[in-house]
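Hey, can you fold this one?
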Amino acid sequence: MLLVTAAFIPSPEHAISRPSRREDAALLRGAGRYVGDISLPGMLHALFIRSPYAHARVLKVATHAAAACDGVAAVLTAADLAGVPRAEINALLPGMRAPEGDLLAVTHVRSIGEPVALVVAQSIAQAEAAVGMVDIEYEELAPVLPFAEPGTTWGGSGDPLVAEIAFASGALRDEAPTATVSVEMPRVSPAPLEPRACLAAWDATAGTMTAWLSTQTPSRARADIAGCLGIPLASVRVIAPDVGGAFGGKASIFPEDLMVAFAARLLACPVRWQSTRSEDLQYATHGRGSHSCGAIWLDTAGSIVAAQASFEFSLGHWLPYSALAPMRNAQRIFPGPYRMAGQQSRATARLSNTAAVNIYRGAGRPEAAVLMERLVDAAACAAGIEPLELRLRSVWPAEELPVSLPNGETLDKSDLAGLLRQASEAFDYNGRRQEQAQRQRAGELVGIGIGLYVEPCGQGWESARVTCTAPGHYTVATGTTAQGQGRETAFSAIAAAALGCDPSKVTVLHGDTASCPPGIGALASRSTPIGGSAVLVAATRLKNELEAGAALPHVVEEVHHAASETWASGCVICQVAVDRDTGTLTIEHLTWVDDAGQVIDPVLVRGQMLGGMAQGIGQALLERVVYDENGQLLTGSFMDYAMPRADDMPRAIHLESRPTRSSANPLGAKGVGEAGCIGVPAALLNAAHDALGNVPGRDLQFPLTPERLWRAIQAQN
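Sure. Predicted structure:
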């Protein structure tokens, strides 16, 4: 039986209100409106013909027979889209080398599932029939697989290295490190409930494009469509209706979205494309996909004095907008919450003949946290120090935060030692250690693991427009978006608190570039700290201007620039049992104390924690994208790609909040949506090592499947 307890009772200065989620009623009644629910007169349907090879030369693409099929409006190839570029890439790192490429394959295909042709027809059935009539010939070539040896040529010429960064501060020790570890983070699929979808309509008379996208970033998608198709920005409208999950997988516009928009303009008809689950597993962006190794040094007093990390990221054959964010985040976050004199870190990213890799819930934060937490546990074991005690000795003291770190980052206010103590007390750490010893003497494999983390929550700006439409009635239009986080509930509460009204008097608009101001969108746990602060500033100014006699309707628009980056933090402690005969890991208890800063709505925070925890468990125990030696995808359906289920959740869950107001934004909020994918996998990996005896040099890796754990047990018997 699953037992969930919670202790979200913030003090008045930390909780604005506790409204019910206003989004839920329509969704629970089946009254949501997703891209697939929208149908326009004369709408055509698009299907993509995709490469069956990971790497091949394209010898022939013959479309005449397909174009003659009933109901077919067009069969497009690379020649038809010549001159239409891929979307912009965020050049986060100096010296990055982006691969060249086209929306449709020209002379080569470089991944399973890469689009080679596009069929547009009056119905899906007619499009499917035409797809079978397109004649394509290939010459298969050897693929470059993830984590190929450095120097491997890419596509016949060139180095697949895209970017590399390094940082050092202080000095490492001359003696051998206290402990070394390696961590593999396999690729995972975001797998939202709603796969990707796009509907584009071109008004030839007005020269305007309207696109309905399942996206996290409508303003950026608008700019990408305008720039790639050569349309004035003012002539493009992007609407993100209800979006059934995203998790970073919908943060960038896809080549398919641009091609659908191109086809809609070419044919002067609305065109809709809906990805299937198999298409998404095959060619939507993946997350994670890294190898890392590290070393840690303790001094004779048992304190951390230095740490070293090396991260290697495997990218796909093309780069989405935020492809380099995970690499940059991992390198800049390490060594996380710990203060030390010396640190070194480096990271590299290379292309491969696979689907692209982009941000996924956590985006580099789990990579840094898992490596660092494994190093701390391994060092504690080697030195004979209790892991909790080593952490308490080594974290940044609350009185020294915020602090400017040697790498230029600013670690926000938090109470890291307080998080550790509160989590250990709620978990009954000492009592469970005693119970663990008793059960181990009886032959059971029982482990306890800690995951302490810090996470940056986005940089830059966000916008808000607040309007007093009638006495006591307001509308908030935000540049950020929502994919289930409860944004309307949170933003109405923020505005109501500033305006002195009930949240029910505030209407929240988002996701439509025609009715909302430009914004960056929902990613990096930034929407409430930055977007919510924009709402707060705009609503406060509106109230002041109304009190000064402004006439109705009255509008205030603000663009809030974050002075510095908010950093959240938290501590997860879990207890697991591993069955000796089968290797099955059971999470018996999980306690989690999170610092999300100013808590807008405890119910929303709890929901984000539970959802992130579920995805963190999936990553740690089940999920893995697998390619064979030919670059063929072996996990192309949910028959092969294991998603977390109810019976994979902990038997008992206890959640608490220890909020510390952020010093980085006027709202005082921090992010929480990605935290479960950061702290939970780290705690589970440490718990698994603890259950199997913390053998030096043991190489337990994600996912912690029964087979892998069983083999580790057999190896030590």
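The first strand starts at residue 3 and ends at 7. Let me know if you want another pass with a different chain boundary.
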